[in-house]
Amino acid sequence: MSQIKSSLHRSLQRPARRLHPLALALLSCCAATAYAASPSNPLPTASIPLAGSVISNMAIGEYVEEGSTVVQTSRSNLVETTIIPTYAFRLEANRSLEGVAGQMVYFSHQLTNSGNVADRYQLSVVDPAGGIDYADEAIYLDRNRDGLPDGAALSLAQLADINLQSGETLGLLVGSTIPLGTAAASYANSLQISATSTGDNTLPTLSNNDSVIVSGNAVIRVRKAFSVAQAPNGSIVTVRLVYENLSSVSSGQVTITDDLSASTLLYQSNSGTWSEGSTVTDAAGGDSAGLNYEYNGTTQTLTAILNNIPANSTGVISFNVAINSAQAGDIPNLAGVVYDPDNNAGTPNNVTTTSNTAVVNVPAIYSVVINAISGSASQAPADNLQTVPSVNQGGIATFQNYVWNTGNSTDTFNLTIASNNLPVGSMVEFFRADGVTPILDSNGDGTPDTGPMAVGESYPIVVKVRFPTSQTDQPAQDYSVFPQAQSINSSSAVDTVEDRTNQIVSQLVDLANTLPASGVGNGNIDNAGAPLKTLSTSAGGRVIFPITVAHTGTPTRYTLAADADSNFNTLNLPAGVSVVFAESVGGSCATTGAIVGQTRALNDGEIQTLCAIVSVATGTAAATATPLFFRAFSPTYVSNGTGTPTNAGSDIIKNALTITNNAPAQLLFTPDLRGQIAAGGTIVYTHTIVNQGATAVTDTQPFVVTNSQTGFTTTLYYDANDNGLFESTDPIITDLDSFSSNGANGLDWHRVRIPAQCHL
Q1: What is the mean pLDDT of residues 243-255?
Q2: Between 419 and 641, whose confidence is greater?
Q3: Boundaries of every domain in the chain
Q4: Which among 709, 678, 703, 694 has a CA at the least distance from the CA of 755?
Q5: Residue 645 has pLDDT above 80, yes or no
Q6: Is 717 helix (H, G, I), strand (E, B) or coil?
Q7: pLDDT tens digits along 481-511
Q8: What does DSSP assign to residue 648?
Q9: Distance of alpha carbon 259 from its chain centroid, rounded?
């Protein structure tokens, strides 16, 4: 991270480069939504992150510098938000039962912690005015939710200390004895159970109202229970429907129905029994007298019709189901009951009620697969290995892996590296599917993770292995890294995948004067000892050597340097010689651009042409084929192999400079002019001669004047006093004898005005 920030900082400080944004990616984050806990607006379990969960956010920017094709990445600071506790709960539900005076009644309820943090609740039960006057109302635990108390009634201390974890549900029973002598009647709100949160006393108290109908006819109760409280997927479980007539009066026909779902509870054919002994058939008819037992495979409904249930009697109907749920959690189920209370088919007073809600729990199983295939959670050898044939020195090997939740419960998986044989200095990072956004820590344990994954869900990850810049190719050496996914809920739920690269390709740079490159890079200096290119200039002049930098490997910049020899330990140029490097314009040095000290960031296979501008000071002694060495150098890519370390990102070429000190004069005669004059008149033209060379003009070379018209005469004059005026004292001249270089540097030129008189 520091290297990326540092690189970005340097780029921003470089005035010759303008950064162009390419892309910006923001990590998605979860937002906690608050729900009011009320019967009309329940909060679904696990709908918000647990308290203490961490939501991380980071901005990712990609950009290229103007003139470069190398995509660079910058990351913002990490912003983390910790989820605060949110308290919420549900109490379900209002209940209504028929009962007989003098007998016990139990009303079933469920208390659920629907917040994101553990909470403690205080329970109470009261006998509201206007209903039955109970004397022994109490609250009981029904953890297995079979409709029967698990033990004695809860004490006041226990009622004030009901602890539930986030998402946990507790079965409760409100029980009391209907007083003897209570007349047959309907009583509303006979009992009221209430629950209050102690974690957040601002939440309203929730209440359920229970009512009872005291009957003088038959009262039928059906209790439903599973043979076990927990059962893994695929196991066979017995369902028991216990029916009883609580009254001293025989009932009429009783119909019990149980709607099953093949997606959770798969009925087992011909598994039914009656009163723990007699077998029954799934088809209509054929059962023992008094019972018609039938299972409809289309509607997945079991129906048991009893002719009657005698007074004060009990019976059991049972059958088997297979747990068929790939999802952990509770599977609730209840039975419907319709019965004739007065054993008189002629009176339309059938009672419709339900059993208690029985629950069988599918325990959580945590399991994970990480592989290299997107189509399935296969663990075949071919799907558990991804290979990148090669990677450049200092480059990044990118692998696409997939994490699969093969358990039966929503889970989060930490991502680590189980083992590796990478070179020292290698770095491994996990990214999301875009390959840019880093995978962060969502639960605050300090390890990057997938975040919550649903059952059967896959999560694509990109594993990037950055190899050290010092590591060059080692024959027959494979490099492997083993990413690991581990459940945060079970340390035994863990799996690995192998990501492998077969070769590290050394960094290469080829420095040449022209394309195609003169050598193959990394050390080709000259042409069998001779300079690859020789240019000449006089003292006080300059020449330009075109140089090309051809790059192979990981994107990088190359520093440019010139020296009188090839070791570049110290940069000593020949006396009087100076060198600067400039950008080329259009790939040519006919026109040069900004002065630079290094190449732009070069991609793999990219070439940049630059210009080495060599200047020779005035007065520098003449020399023939003076060696001049140029180097492109990346200090990053140095081998750590055996023997003397070599630089795989450096190349040198040998050029030569010939210096002369007797270059001829360079005269400039300007401008071309034209004018208009009457016949017989005279016109004067003013011209300027400049000596641009380094050598004085001392010859008696004549001026040659050619007239386009016969009869024209031309006379040349010299502005001797240099006042810019044509005067009678200005001498007539015929040659260049008066012109010389003014100063050794040749920069101070004489101006000569030459009037031209033309006579028609």
Answers
A1: 95
A2: 419
A3: 2-82, 217-363, 368-505, 508-660, 664-760
A4: 703
A5: no
A6: strand
A7: 999 999 999 999 999 999 999 877 777 788 8
A8: T
A9: 45
Confidence of residue 667 (pLDDT cuts 50, 70, 90): low
Cα 675 to Cα 416: distance, rounded to the nearest angstrom:
89
pTM above 0.90, yes or no: no
Task: Tell me if domain 368-505 and domain 508-660 are identical in fold.
Answer: yes
Instruction: Dig out the tokens for 640 from the structure.
Output: 């750590």
The single residue listed with the structure tokens 């639960």 is: 443
Average pLDDT over residues 688-696: 63
Whether domain 368-505 has CATH 1.10.8.10: the reply is no
Mean per-residue pLDDT, 397-418: 96
Please work out, in degrees rounded to the nearest 5, the angle formed at the alpha carbon of residue 62 by the alpha carbons of 58 and 66. 150
Residue 477's pLDDT is what? Answer: 82
Query: Comparing 741 with 638, which gets the higher pLDDT?
Result: 638
The CATH superfamily label for domain 217-363 reads ntegrin, alpha v. Chain A, domain 4 (2.60.40.1530)
Q: Phi/psi at 465 (nearest 5 deg)?
A: -110, 115
| SS3 track for 93-128 | CCEEEEECCCCEEEEEEEEEECCCCCEEEEEEEECC
Q: Is 522 left (phi over 0), alpha (psi -120 to 50) or beta?
A: left
Cβ atoms of 662 and 698 within 8 Å: the answer is: no
d(CA 194, CA 208) in angstroms, rounded, equals 7
Q: Would you say 673 and 685 are in contact if contact means Cβ atoms under 8 Å apart? A: yes
Residue count of the chain? 760
**Pair of tokens at residue 678:** 């009457």
Question: Cα 527–529–533 angle (5° rounding)?
Answer: 50
- What three-state secondary structure class fits 509? strand
- Which of 533-547, 603-617, 696-710, 712-726 is predicted least confidently? 696-710
Strands 220-226 and 335-339, by their bridges, are: unpaired
Q: What is the pLDDT of residues 105-161, one digit of tens each?
A: 999 999 999 999 999 999 999 988 777 888 899 999 999 888 999 999 999 999 999
Output the CA angle 95-100-106, nearest 5 degrees: 35
Q: Collapsing DSSP states into helix, strand and coil, what is residue 156?
A: helix
Question: Is 2.60.40.1510 the CATH classification of the domain at 508-660?
Answer: yes
